[in-house]
Amino acid sequence: MEHPSASNMNIEGVDDETKQNVDDRFIANHQYTSSFPPPPEGEEKVEIGQNPPSPPTSTEFIPPNGGLEAWLLVVALFLIFANTWGTTSTFGAFQAFYIRDLLSTESTSAISWIGSVQAFLVVFIGVFAGPLFDMGWIRPMVFSGSFLTVFGMFMTSVSHSYYQVFLAQGVCVGFGSGLTYVPTLAIVSKYFTTRRPIAIGAGAVGSSVGGVVFPIMFRQLQPRIGFGWTVRSLAFINLAFAVVACVILGRHAGQKTRQARSLVDTAAFRSAVFVQWTLALFMLYLAYYVPLFFIVSYSRYGLGSGEDFAFYMLAVLNGSSTVGRTVPYLLGQKVKPIYTLIFSSLLGVILLFSWIAVHTRPAFVVWCVLWGFVAGVLVTAPTSTVAHPLLSPSLDVVGTRLGMSWSAASIGTVIGAPIAGVLVDVSTGNFVHGQVFGGAVMAAGAAFLIWPLIAIERYDRRKG
C-alpha cells in the first residue's frame, strides 16, 4: 500500500495556473520595503557614507520540472516506496509462515495485528511527517526512518516469540517507514509541476516492485536457508535501497520556507461533505488489507493449492497494482479522481463478494489481477481527490485536510484485518465470514462516497 502523501507539498488536482497565481501574490506581498518614503521617480536614494543599496535578490525556489537532480529524487522515491509500501504489502507471505510455523500457537487475529500495526504506523506517522518536512527536518526523518526500517527487519530475523515479532516488524518497521515516505514524496512534488503526475507515478511503482520481488524471495529462500537468513536477505536489500536513497536525499538540506501546517482544521467537522468523505475512507480501508493479508492463506487452505502457487498470487496482486497506482495520476487532468475512486470502490465490492465463489486456480489468478488494480487506485486516488475546493476550501488547508482523512483511514487499516482474522477459520479453509465482512464494509464506503460525488459535480457545474 502506497498510501498516498500527507504533506501539503503534494497537491494533486489543482492546476498549475492557480498555484502560480498564489506564488505571484506571495512574492508581490513580500517585496523589499523601507520605513522611509520612496525617492522621487528617476532619483536614487543614497545614505551619506554608504554604498547604494543593491536590489533585493529573490529566494523563491523555482521547480526545475526535470533535470538530473529532480529525476534522481524520483529514483530515491522509487527506492523508499519499495522499502516502505513494498515491505508492508509483503506481510501476507509472512503471515502464512507465522500461522503455519513460527507463531503457530497464536490466533490468526493476533498475527494479523502485526501487519495491521505496521500498515497503520506507515500512514499515521506520515500525517506528522508532513509538518516536520515543512519545518525543514527532511534529513533527520529520512536518515532515522531508514535506520529504523532496516533495523526492524534485522531484528525480525532473530525473533522467536510473538512480542518480538510485533515490536520489530510491526512497530519498528512501521514507524521507520512512516518517517521516510512522506518527506520523499513531498520533495519530489516540490521539484515537479506539470510533470508531477509522471514523477510520482514512476516513484510509486517502487511499492509494486517491492511487493512482487520480496514475496518471491521469501518463498524461494525460506525452505533453503531458513526464516532468519531469508529475512536478513530482505533486510540487506532494504539496506542497499536505503543507502542509495539517503545519499540522494542527504544532498538536500531542510529549509523552512513557510509555517508548518496545523494537524486539525476544526472547520472540517462542520462540513457534511468532508465528514462523509472521511467516513468513506475509514470504511474502504477496513476492507483494504483483508485480501492482502489473507490471499496466501486462502490460496493454500481455501483452494488447496501448493505453496509456490499461493506465494506467487501475492506477487501477482502486487504487480497488477502498478496500473492502479499510476492511473489516477495520469488521468487526473481528464477524469475527476473521485470518479476513478468510486468506480474502483464499486468494483472492489463486486470482487470481494465474488471472492466467495472463486474455487479454481485460473479464476483466482484473474481475481488477484483485478483486486490488485483496485488496491492500487485506493492508495493514490484519495490524495488527488481531497485537493478539490469543496473538500479543501483553500490551498492553505489541503495538507491538513489530507492528514485528517488519512488519520481516519489509518484507523480502518489497523482494525480491519484483525477483525477478519477472528471471522475466518484457516484450519478448515473457511473464509466466507471474512469475505462477507470485507465486501460489506467496502459497500458502506462506496455508499458514503455518493454524496461527495454529487456535491463535487454540482460545485464544478456551478463554477464552470
UniProtKB/TrEMBL annotation:
Stored PROSITE patterns: MFS (PS50850)
Coiled coil: none
Transmembrane segments annotated in the record for this chain: 70-98, 110-129, 141-160, 166-186, 198-218, 230-250, 271-290, 310-331, 338-358, 364-391, 403-424, 436-456
Cell compartments where the protein resides: Membrane
Pfam family, one: MFS_1
Region Disordered, annotated ranges: 1-20, 30-61
Keyword Lipid metabolism (UniProt): no
An example Gene Ontology molecular-function term: transmembrane transporter activity
Principal cellular location given in the protein's record: membrane
Chain intervals with Polar residues compositional bias: 1-10
InterPro entries: MFS (IPR011701), MFS_dom (IPR020846), MFS_trans_sf (IPR036259), Proton-linked_MCT (IPR050327)
Topology of the protein relative to the lipid bilayer: Multi-pass membrane protein
Keywords of this entry: Membrane, Transmembrane, Transmembrane helix
Record's GO cellular component terms: membrane
Gene3D superfamilies: MFS general substrate transporter like domains (1.20.1250.20)
Domain Major facilitator superfamily (MFS) profile span(s) in chain numbering: 72-463
Family: Belongs to the major facilitator superfamily. Monocarboxylate porter (TC 2.A.1.13) family.
Name of this chain's protein: Major facilitator superfamily (MFS) profile domain-containing protein
Biological source species: Knufia peltigerae
